[in-house]
């Protein structure tokens, strides 16, 4: 049987036409998908700007399905999940990005940082720590170290916090000498007396203008029975850090009474009180007096200089009773009004406390409590 070449003549053009038609259909499908991806992306942005996060997530999921290789869409989706508190979904998105072999180094570091933030927000501090350590030597190194510092502070790992703070300082990303002094003081509080003394001396050398190391050292000396050394330490502290005299005044007065140096303590505190009147210095001066009239004289002097409910309350304590019915009521009213005025207030978040804190319990900021009470601010 002879082969009919006429079929070949007809088949070649037909195959060419079918191939051209298939390519056109593929191009059309690609164009449709490319148009759908930006539309879904911009629709998600619109929802996000209108604070419609649920609709934005749905739009970004659709955009990722249309263009699964676009890393920016994955980052946007992961950040949305984190903001919504859906940390498991955010972790899956960022782990999926890290599993891709074609991901650029910059995007890989970015995904690693985003994954660490997911763990941090979810409270998985150990996994966050491991993820942050992998960012050493990357563009996210400084941010990772700051996040590690926050983790170590929350877990009270003061040794690791000190190492990290030194790295940040050495890299030129800020001066953390005051924080390092606090970390050393925290370590000293859990150490024996000799090691604590060495740590506090190191803290003083690291941050000469910090008041806490000197106060803790004086307390350590006082507990060891060396009140004379404690008094000397507090006098030096009052001279070197005069703006914190309110925190130094009462320990200085107590140490002075223990070693019989009331006269010298009065002179030191009176000089500070003349320059910058303080309720705590006023109380310390009153403690140093022997008679009740002399004690009340300091409160009266404070009232003459400026109105003060706290000073009025102190002055009325032990005053001669002229009317047995009115005086207790007046005293109680003054005491009640004086309570909120005698608190300390955080300059960062406004958290008020009866006693002075080195680290605010509300916002975790260090040295945010001024050495002056609310009435004096």
Describe, in plain words, how this protein is organized in 3D.
With 377 residues, the chain is mainly α. 71% of the residues lie in helices and 1% in strands. It has 18 helices and two strands. The chain has helices at 6-49, 53-66, 71-83, 87-99, 105-122, 125-133, 141-154, 158-170, 177-189, 193-206, 212-223, 227-240, 245-259, 262-275, 279-287, 292-305, 309-316, 326-341; strands at residues 344-345, 352-353. Strands 1-2 form a two-stranded antiparallel ribbon. Strand 1 (344-345) and strand 2 form a beta hairpin.
- The outline comes out as elongated
Poorly predicted regions are 30-37
**CATH class wording of the domain at 177-283:** Mainly Alpha
Helix content, binned percent:
over 70%
Largest sheet, in brief, is: 2 strands, antiparallel
Which topology of the domain at 177-283 does CATH recognise? Serine Threonine Protein Phosphatase 5, Tetratricopeptide repeat
What is the N-to-C succession of helices and strands? HHHHHHHHHHHHHHHHHHEE
Q: Spatial order of the strands in the main sheet?
A: 1-2
Count of helical regions: 18
Q: Provide the CATH superfamily of the domain at 177-283.
A: Tetratricopeptide repeat domain
